[in-house]
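Sample pair:
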Amino acid sequence: MSSHFDFDGNDSPDAATRPGAAPANRSPRERRASRRMRIALRGCLVAGTALAVAAGCGGGGSGGDGGGASETTVVAGDTQELFGGPVSLWARLAADGSLEAVGMTMPFAAIANAPVAPAGTAAAAGCGHQRASLASASASADGGGGAPHGSGDGPAGAVAVLKFPDVVREQTVFDHLELHWNPSGHEPENIYGRPHYDFHFYTVPVSDVLAVDCANPVQPSPDRMPPGYALPPGCVPEMGQHAIDPRSPEYAAVDAKFSATFLIGFWDGGLTFLEPMVTKEFLMGTPDFDFDIPVPAAFGRSTAYPTHFTASFDASAEAYEMEFTDFVAVQ
């Protein structure tokens, strides 16, 4: 299985031709219905508590036939102000208590107000996101390092650090989110040298992230690497190593432009984060997009792992809803 993205519910031509590309788990109609439910549920969040959705907050069946509202529970995680808008984490539970989605809400203000570096400013160095070709002479020989990845004061320059609610940390791979804003992009500049957000959804606590020193990186065993991904040289202190999908659009041609991609992070041989990485220019256009997420044969502990990521823009609320769904058991 390989990750890919589509816009407004349509697969990109690249995704349709990739070997091993997985079909979408839900039809466009089902995804639209799911989006309507997310919009209705947003107003039912209560910080730090679980709330059984009252009449009017539930959603109809995925087929949109209005066959009765289903009781849904939303649990809020952390919220943090970012560039003039509150970014928040949450989880959505089904009536039987099973976890349906793990997500975040990002207001348009946090995108529009993110400061961009003046034209001609060099991309941040030492960030370890290497070109797909493992034989590329431009890959960092020294394993990256040095400069902060983002523009904030959190780990590796994170501008926001938010913890998921307990139910997420107890039942899934996820622990917390670290948002990195890159005003001039980062290396390699010819690919990722555009202003963009890195959404690091970590599977380990902040203390483990801070301990990443990039000294003697350990290569993950083949069963820990999701199908279709490759791990080039490079490591970012207080972050880790970044595995890429060589079939992603930004690697399709020498002059291909990066807009949105999905990376998978490692440290000390273990999978430590899932990372959608998206440019400001792309997000400003407010397209819907999604990725299929490949599953490793082994994860290292028994938990639930997502197989799909969806980002939908709600014009009425002026915010993106980004969520992980379709969890499977891993060990």
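The first strand starts at residue 5 and ends at 7.
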